[in-house]
Design a protein that fits this description.
Elements lengths: L4 H27 L11 E4 L9 H28 L6 H18 L2 H10 L3 E3 H34 L4 H4 L2 H4 L6 H20 L9 E2 L6 H7 L5 H34 L4 H29 L8 H25 L2 H10 L2
Parallel strand pairs: 1-3
Antiparallel strand pairs: 1-2
Helix pairs in contact: 2-3, 2-4, 2-12, 2-13, 3-5, 3-12, 5-8, 5-10, 5-11, 8-10, 10-11, 11-12
């Protein structure tokens, strides 16, 4: 079966890029055969979805509209929770921070992917790759912590309704000096700055070709030379602290919540309580499920196609459906949204 002219051009471009990398590599080996590391590398190549050369424009259109939808949906939720007085409660304060975080999270990956799909220029500088990874990891960790805080808010509202106004007060929820949201942001940032610096201190001499649509830990570890066991253990430790432990805390919160709901005498009360929690449970299952598989499995078990699919799920698909889940299943949010419509 003969290749199309477009596929032939793609193969030539890929081969030229690889040859350029090999020439640079051999030149470095002649100068210093014992050490070829990141200090001599100026850029990587994000191959993204180049496996589908005939679908590049189609993928660009799909992801562009997805990005616009994510910005509009999450932006509307942030707006209505700020302007509607009936939504000035702790639950909706967390709900307004969550879509803002989703906008930042998606914007760390999608614009670069759209540029690569449109221009077919897949090179990314060392600084841009480092910055992108740092933001993705930081925002991902913050999202895990924020989902845990939201689960605690629901636990207090359902299991200890009399103590809820005292525990989830204005200072704990809103004031920057003592708020739970501020604690989530402050905790997630320094840890991931350190992890990003640690990953990019590794020697990369296998290739500069990243088989992913953004700079992430699993594909970069595949490019590292030498023994990366300690690096993998650090990634595993951070994933346990910021993914697994929050996930277990959320499971514990909801086990108590479900137990309390089942003891309610009124069927209407049980349905209403389940309704307020079910949306958060769906979001937690989608986000944590894909993140746990991605970051808690050993490097040898990683597949490029699987990694890209899972990353696509928790970086793009989940942020797109989260506003629909929260808004369509939330009576107060729907009422506030209708007030804005003419």
């Amino acid at each position: 079966m003969e290749s199309s002219p477009l596929e032939i051009r793609k193969q030539i471009r890929k081969q030229a890029s690889e040859d350029k990398w090999l020439i640079s590599l051999f030149s470095q080996m002649e100068k210093n055969p014992t050490e070829i590391n990141l200090t001599s590398m100026t850029e990587f190549t994000l191959w993204g979805f180049s496996d589908y050369p005939n679908l590049q424009i189609f993928l660009f259109v799909i992801f562009f509209f997805v990005y616009v939808i994510i910005l509009m949906e999450n932006g509307i939720i942030v707006f209505i929770t700020k302007v509607d007085q009936t939504l000035q409660t702790p639950m909706y304060f967390f709900l307004s921070n969550f879509p803002f975080l989703e906008i930042c999270f998606v914007s760390a990956t999608l614009p670069r992917m759209l540029t690569n799909l449109w221009t077919q220029k897949r090179n990314i500088s060392l600084f841009a790759c480092t910055t992108q990874m740092g933001f993705v990891l930081m925002l991902g960790n913050i999202e895990c912590l924020l989902l845990t805080v939201m689960a605690y808010d629901r636990y207090m509202a359902i299991c200890s309704p009399l103590h809820y106004p005292l525990v989830m007060n204005h200072k704990v929820c809103v004031q920057p000096a003592g708020s739970l949201v501020a604690a989530c942001w402050i905790t997630g940032v320094p840890v991931e700055i350190g992890q990003t610096c640690q990953i990019f201190s590794l020697p990369f001499c296998v290739s500069n070709q990243i088989n992913h649509f953004f700079c992430d830990i699993p594909p970069l570890l595949k490019l590292a030379c030498g023994d990366t066991f300690l690096n993998e253990m650090l990634v595993f430790t951070v994933a346990v602290l910021f993914v697994m432990i929050p996930f277990l805390l959320i499971l514990g919160s909801y086990s108590k919540i479900i137990s309390t709901i089942l003891r309610l005498p009124s069927a209407t009360g049980r349905i209403k309580a389940f309704s307020t929690c079910s949306s958060h449970v769906i979001v937690v299952a989608m986000f944590f499920g894909s993140a746990i598989i991605t970051y808690l499995q050993p490097k040898s078990k990683h597949s490029s196609r699987t990694d890209k699919f899972l990353s696509l799920f928790y970086t793009i698909v989940t942020p797109m459906f989260n506003p629909m889940i929260y808004t369509l299943r939330n009576k107060d949010a729907m009422i506030a949204l209708r007030k804005l419509l003419p």
